[in-house]
Amino acid sequence: MKKRIGSFLFFALGGAFVFAQEAPASGPTAWQFNAHANFYFIPDDFFILPVFQADKNKLHLEARYNYEDRETFSAWIGYNFQGGNKLEYTITPMLGGVVGRSDGMAPGLEVTLNFKGFELYSEGEVYLDFQTEENHYLYNWSDLTYSPKDWLWFGISAQRTRVYQTALDIQRGVLIGAGLKNWELTTYVYNLGFEDPFVLVSISKQF
User: Fold this and answer.
1) Contact indicator for 95, 107 with CB cutoff of 8 Å
2) According to the 3-state scheme, what is the secondary structure of the chain?
3) CA distance 9 to 186
4) Taking Cα atoms as reference points, which of 125, 68, 74 lies closest to residue 98?
5) Which of 184, 193, 192 lies closest to 201 in space, CA to CA?
6) What is the CATH number of the domain that holds 193?
7) R_g (Cα) of the chain, nearest Å
8) In 1-23, which positions are buried (b, 16+ CB within 10 angstroms) versus exposed (e)?
9) The whole model's pTM is what?
10) What tens digit of pLDDT does each residue of 51-63 get?
11) pLDDT band at residue 197, thresholds of 50, 70 and 90?
């Protein structure tokens, strides 16, 4: 199973790299990449959730690991709808395949709305397990932030996931982040005042 996941990841990311080499370095048709590393510091547990995204015009490609389940890889293809004036939006419906500890498929949606320094970001999916309907699950990660400066933002966050367990079905928290050039660092603190508080540190780079 690990060999199958590794081969899938190699060809998915390798294909994106080949396309990137063929694309011009600048201009409206160039590839844009975004790599994330999400570090979960949970009581008596720790894991990393990496995400890689590639966009070219309307095309959106994405790869995730440890998202739907531990030791599980998912690959996605989607279509970007972008526009707006005062209210800017990016809406990306997607379809993904999931292999690893969990095997299935998932329709998904990513939404980003920007208005006068406020941003709502939400990513959701309905995981459909190939083995049993009892494993079907609705995932969601949503952040609402305000940026007083281009390099600084803070806000609230909510997650619904199965990769870790707490007493709450929906993890709720606060966040603060900062950026420098193409790098971003965001720290989340979830479930303050409840039984299972934990910290998430997210590092991302655009290139």
Assistant:
1) yes
2) CHHHHHHHHHHHHHHHHHHHHHCCCCCCCCCEEEEEEEEEEECCEEEEEEEEEEEECCEEEEEEECCCCCCEEEEEEEECEEECCCCEEEEEEEEEEEEECCCEEEEEEEEEEEECCEEEEEEEEEEEECCCHHHCEEEEEEEEEEEEECCEEEEEEEEECCCCCCCCCCEEEEEEEEEECCEEEEEEEECCCCCCCEEEEEEEEEC
3) 26
4) 74
5) 184
6) 2.40.160.40
7) 17
8) eeeebeebbeebeeebeeebeee
9) 0.84
10) 999 999 999 999 9
11) very high
Side-chain-facing half-sphere of 9: CA atoms under 13 Å: 19
Residue 195 amino acid letter: E
pLDDT at 42: 94
Residue 17 makes CB contacts below 8 A (sequence gap 6+) with none
Structure tokens of 89?
């939006």
Domain that holds residue 29: 2-206
Estimate to the nearest angstrom the gap between the alpha carbon of 109 and the chain centroid: 11
Tokens 């299972």, residue located: 196
Count how many domains the chain has.
1
- Scan for tokens 């707006």, then name that residue: 84
**Whole-number pLDDT of residue 28:** 58
d(Cα 15, Cα 20) in Å, to the nearest integer?
A: 9
